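Summary for the funding panel

The consortium committed to producing paired sequence-structure records for every protein in the target list. Below we show the first two records in order, beginning with the earlier of the two.
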Amino acid sequence: MNPSIKMPPQVAWDSGSLSGAPLMQKTTHLGDLNGIFADDEAWRGGDPALAVYRVEMLDTPSGDGELYTGVTHLNPGRVGNEFFMTRGHFHARREQGEVYFGLRGEGLLLLQAENGQTRLERVQPGSIHIIPGLTAHRLINTGHDILSALAVWPSIAGHDYAALSGGFALRVTTDILKLMAKEVQNG
């Protein structure tokens, strides 16, 4: 018997591009993010066709025991003084977790428990983020280049955007980022 060796899908670690398998892609534009940014006037003044982020995902089976794998590419930019971010979500099946791997760029992962408690994790190349169940999550690009993060999650998890219709409890703005940097300097 001669076993065959199959080449699995690949990720280019420097760019976050997926290859070697059928892909699904979705781009989210500024006009798709109504109600996401605090400064509604600044959001309305922006170009609705401007791409904020793109997700490419391996076209894999869904169902119990299956995993999805995808990469989010979040462009740099701001609406008012708030950084570009993903829509953010809880999982429809709240108990399901997720793992993010930072690939390129710099930013933050905003995590929020159901009780509204928040925390931030720095996302950068090589960072690993374990997102527990019962936790909403959002990527925020605080840098000048594209922020790319690889994600792996159970295909049964689903997305619940409606639970955050009032927004996350914490907003990351240029002022907040400056304050956080000052706190780090002062120890």
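The next record, for a separate protein in the list, is shown here:
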Amino acid sequence: MSIGRSTAEAGAMASFRDAMASFPTGVSVVTTMHTDGAPRGMTCSALCSVSMEPPLLLVCLRTASPTLDAIRVRGGFVVNLLKYQARDTARLFASGDTGRFDQVAWRHHPGTAGPCLVDDAHAAVDCQVLRRDEAGDHVVVLGEVVGVRTLSGAAPLLYGLRRYARWPDASSLLDEAR
């Protein structure tokens, strides 16, 4: 319990955390390039599509994140939508490991805001920042989609109930949608 927080507030926060843990979501790694030329990235499950005209999506990133700092400077980011086989990559990019990009295959395509995780993502969405809004201990970043790269038809990685999973029929549904 934090100093100055009542027992009721702490209980409400724990209940909120449990409720959100029970809501499954897709998993991504948000990447960008720092001005020093080094890649930055972090695991993100707080993202959603916002609009089709124009194509917009938002991601919510931890305020203290070095990735967010680089996005502020760069003005763009790439959302790597992870495939089911990328559980270890999701864990790696959620950790504080500073050598995370040394442990995965990635490529920075010319003209994009950040690296594409070529072996771990089923799609990569390149975005330019439209706006940022502080929200508690996170920043909501709204991005305009400027490019999409489809990498595979693999089943997406999901996260819920504090564990990773896959949608059993996702690959066949992706095939049907095409």
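Regarding this second record: Residues 24-177 form a domain with the Pnp Oxidase; Chain A fold (CATH 2.30.110.10). The first helix runs from residue 7 to 21.
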